[in-house]
């Protein structure tokens, strides 16, 4: 199992480069700078085997009225037992999605009663009650423990409704680590009269629950502190999600029964206790911990149960900008601190249903499991969001490939994450991409090298895997804190950093630095070369400036005489000036959001970003970041954006001039496929016309949930497409999305719902 490591923050390193007249001109090294790129490795196919199983379905077991009466007597005997409080459960951990799915006031009232009593039980020294079932000879046939009794005749609920209520409480309150969704019940004429919820047998002792809660309270603190610090620094929901995702995966591995490949069945592994106590978790533990921390961070998330690779499995859904995504931490944890993959992947990070292969959501099998929202978007999919998803356009030619790679490395530098993990729309795109990595290294170097930051492949091989055709491309970055130092009559040196993936490589024994001309003002040189395991990085040259110290001028004090003292006039403070922002571009858009990005302006304290619709100003915001996402916009709408930088002087903002205006647009809403009709060996796809769509893209697969490929692009005037040369006896699945073109960039809608036909 991994040991817990220090909390990392997903922020860029600020590299400040000052240019002085005494040195030859050196361009500033922005935080997005790209340097040398080297590819000297072989390609290997590698599949990671996701854990099988991990969820134990809840059960509802009927008992006779006589058995219920015996249980009632046992609970009466507990009355008057002295109780004491344990640490208070924090309501900031509690979700309400399960409650929101309850459709009647009776279900909601039952939920409130069970949840209230669960809080009381959690905070008191109350023993769970053992119930044994015996046969006619007095032999014990089964036994279980229950923690409360509920008389619910007044609610008029059947057993399926009670299952729904119990699951909603369990899913909304992951802090109840002892809670089991299983229960026994008595009923009359199909309606439940009494409910006795079971407790996980590892936590029947009150003292055990108290000690576990104490351990959780201690173990959770570093995670809450990291979230609080990230929020204080202005982290958005995606950044908070990534922080929580990575912290969880770095802390634990999937827990098997020792000496086997069977998922751990102990209760701790199926709850938050296994995580915060450090004992290990299975899928339920990953999912409940993630939901708990996401709720604390203020981001909506859902606990989901279904099948993964055919076995019981749990994962999460996350809501970003009003759109839901699937995320599976269990399958993103590669189970070890692998040399170059770092134990984390993002193959199942914020996926649509189509991209979330091998997951099947079956609420009818997992009794009481609520329905979850549709997950059709890709805006916040890890690969899409960070520019790591390559379509055929990205490898259309050398220029497109270089632009794609430059953007990918730029974004990696911003988030200090050099474990580049690419995904592709097809295996053909992936193979073309790998060919460019081999064949166009020289051209890539010529186009992106700036002489400052150095990037290299960190590993001996690039790992690739099957659908969705991912490539793990580990990188190493070398950079200095600054490229300007003051002359102090001693040899000037820089502080260098070498980062592999997300980990800083220590200088001693791994790399060394040599200097030239670093003993006098002017231009100096540093050469970083690898040692030991890093000998193959070669020599890497960096130029920096040594400047004269600024001489402090002492102002003479006026001589005191009998003449009136003349007060010197204050020297005018130089007026700050800020340049015009450049590089403004559209990054992505959905039906309700537009994300823009621009170049960092030297000396800027922040930026004023203005959105117009026609001549009317819609929004004006300020930000300290070099990107901004406008939310809650109208679908299929045209906008313009302009931006200006500002500095602060004596508490007053000093603005630069506005940038050139940028045209942006939102996507349309997802189209509706009306029908897919078969005709001989053809399929005719019909959809509803979407206003303001420039055209439509049609996708087809032989599977409902994966494997879709674009088969056609049609103009906006069309609402029908015929796919020919299909095979009889086979099923075909189709979906459609619209596109609009703005500034030469296509803006895509979400996909339609899938329609199918069998020839």
Please explain how this structure is put together.
By secondary structure, this protein is of the alpha+beta class. Helices cover 21% and strands 30% of the residues. The strands form nine sheets. Strands 1, 12, 13, 14, 15, 16, 18 and 19 form an eight-stranded mixed β-sheet that branches. Strands 25, 26, 28, 29 and 30 form a five-stranded antiparallel β-sheet that branches. Strands 33, 34, 36, 37 and 38 form a five-stranded antiparallel β-sheet that branches. α6 (237-251) runs antiparallel to α8 (283-297). Residues 1-22, 24-46, 81-90, 337-341, 551-556 and 558-568 have low confidence and may be disordered.
The percent range for helix content is: 10-25%
What is the number of helices? 13
Tell me the total number of β-strands. 38
Query: Outline, from the CA principal axes?
Result: globular
Main beta sheet, described?
8 strands, mixed
Percent of residues in β-strands: 25-35%
Spatial gap, N to C terminus: 51 Å
Global mean pLDDT: 81
- Please state the structural category: alpha+beta
Rg, nearest Å = 31 Å
Query: Uncertain runs with pLDDT below 50, 5 residues or more?
Result: 1-22, 24-46, 81-90, 337-341, 551-556, 558-568
């Amino acid at each position: 199992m991994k040991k817990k490591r220090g909390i990392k923050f997903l922020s860029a390193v600020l590299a400040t480069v000052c240019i002085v007249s005494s040195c030859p001109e050196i361009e500033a090294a922005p935080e997005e700078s790209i340097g040398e790129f080297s590819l000297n490795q072989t390609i290997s196919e590698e599949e990671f085997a996701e854990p099988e199983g991990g969820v134990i379905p809840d059960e509802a077991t009927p008992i006779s009225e006589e058995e219920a009466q015996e249980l009632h007597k046992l609970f009466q005997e507990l009355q008057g037992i002295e109780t004491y409080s344990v640490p208070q459960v924090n309501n900031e951990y509690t979700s309400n999605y399960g409650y929101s799915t309850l459709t009647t006031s009776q279900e909601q009232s039952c939920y409130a009663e069970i949840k209230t009593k669960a809080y009381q039980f959690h905070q008191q020294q109350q023993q769970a009650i053992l119930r044994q079932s015996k046969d006619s000879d007095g032999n014990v046939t089964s036994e279980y423990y229950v923690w409360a009794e509920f008389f619910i005749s007044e609610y008029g609920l059947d057993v399926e409704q009670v299952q729904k209520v119990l699951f909603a409480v369990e899913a909304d309150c992951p802090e109840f680590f002892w809670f089991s969704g299983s229960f026994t019940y008595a009923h009359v004429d199909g309606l439940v009269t009494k409910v006795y919820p079971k407790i996980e047998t590892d936590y029947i002792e009150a003292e055990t629950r108290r000690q576990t809660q104490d351990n959780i309270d201690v173990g959770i603190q570093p995670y809450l502190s990291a979230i609080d610090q990230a929020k204080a620094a202005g982290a958005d929901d995606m950044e908070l999600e990534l922080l929580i995702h990575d912290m969880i995966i770095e802390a634990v591995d999937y827990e098997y029964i020792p000496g086997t490949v069977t998922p751990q069945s102990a209760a701790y592994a199926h709850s938050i206790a296994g995580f915060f106590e450090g004992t290990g978790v299975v899928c339920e533990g990953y999912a409940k911990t993630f939901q708990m921390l996401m709720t604390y961070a203020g981001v909506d998330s859902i606990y989901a149960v279904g099948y993964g690779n055919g076995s019981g499995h749990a994962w999460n859904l996350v809501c970003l900008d009003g759109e839901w995504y699937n995320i599976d931490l269990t399958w993103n944890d590669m189970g070890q601190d692998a040399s170059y993959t770092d134990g984390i992947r993002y193959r199942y990070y914020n996926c649509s249903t189509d991209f979330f292969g091998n997951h099947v959501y079956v609420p009818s099998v997992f009794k009481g499991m609520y329905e979850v929202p549709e997950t059709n978007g890709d805006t916040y999919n890890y690969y899409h969001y960070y520019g790591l998803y390559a379509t055929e356009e990205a490898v259309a030619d050398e220029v497109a490939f270089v632009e794609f790679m430059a953007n990918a490395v730029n974004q990696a530098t911003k988030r200090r994450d050099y474990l580049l993990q690419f995904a592709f729309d097809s295996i053909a795109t992936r193979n073309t991409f790998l060919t460019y990595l081999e064949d166009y290294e020289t051209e890539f170097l010529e186009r992106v090298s700036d002489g400052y930051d150095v990037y290299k492949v960190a590993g001996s091989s690039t790992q690739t895997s099957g659908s969705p055709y991912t490539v793990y491309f580990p990188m190493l970055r070398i950079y200095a804190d600054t490229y300007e130092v003051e002359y102090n009559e001693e040899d000037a040196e820089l502080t260098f950093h070498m980062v592999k993936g997300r980990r800083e490589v220590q200088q001693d024994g791994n790399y060394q630095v040599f200097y030239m001309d670093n003993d006098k003002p002017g231009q100096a040189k540093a050469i970083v070369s690898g040692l030991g395991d890093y000998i193959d990085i070669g020599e890497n040259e960096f130029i920096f400036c040594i400047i004269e110290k600024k001489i402090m001028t002492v102002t003479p004090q006026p001589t005191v005489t009998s003449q009136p003292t003349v007060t010197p006039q204050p020297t005018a403070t130089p007026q700050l000036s800020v340049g015009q922002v450049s590089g403004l571009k559209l990054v992505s858009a959905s039906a309700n959001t537009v994300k823009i990005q621009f170049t960092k302006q030297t000396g800027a304290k922040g930026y004023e970003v203005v959105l117009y619709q026609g001549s009317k100003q819609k929004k004006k915001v300020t930000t300290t970041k070099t990107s901004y996402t406008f939310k809650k916009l109208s679908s299929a709408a045209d906008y313009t954006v302009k931006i200006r930088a500002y500095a602060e002087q004596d508490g007053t903002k000093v603005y630069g001039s506005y940038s050139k205006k940028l045209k942006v647009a939102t996507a349309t809403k997802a189209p509706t496929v009306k029908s897919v009709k078969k005709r001989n060996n053809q399929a005719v796809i019909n959809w509803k016309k979407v206003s303001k769509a420039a055209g439509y893209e049609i996708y087809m697969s032989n599977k409902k949930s994966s494997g879709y490929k674009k088969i056609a692009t049609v103009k906006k005037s069309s609402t029908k497409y015929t796919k020919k040369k299909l095979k009889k006896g086979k099923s075909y699945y189709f979906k459609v999305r619209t596109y609009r073109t703005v500034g030469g960039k296509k803006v895509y809608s979400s996909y339609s719902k899938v329609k199918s036909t069998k020839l």
